[in-house]
Amino acid sequence: MEVELCGHATLASAHILWETRTLARRHEARFHTLSGLLTATRGADGIEMNFPATPEDPAGAPPSS
To answer: Which residues of the chain have a pLDDT value below 70?
Structure first.
């Protein structure tokens, strides 16, 4: 069963794809998940990941006590 979001597993998967040359190091790793599209790019300072952001919902004032 797939969990909604697992950042460490996504990071590790991207790393393995690049290290085994399954994916060229210059290419972005793209994962289609229950949370939406997750991407990882390899840069000079490490791996940068892009996670989906959940839009904010307006909230009313709490009831007065």
So the answer is: none
Q: Are 35 and 4 in contact (CB under 8 A)?
A: yes
Q: Which residues contact 12 (CB under 8 A, 6 or more apart)?
A: none
Token couple for 35: 């949370």
Which is nearest to 52 in space by CA: 2, 7, 1? 7
Give the whole-angstrom CA distance, residue 42 versus residue 4.
23
DSSP 41-56: EEETTEEEEE---PPP
Q: What is the pLDDT of residue 49?
A: 93
Q: Distance between CA 40 and CA 50 in Å, rounded? A: 6
The token duo for 38 is 């997750």
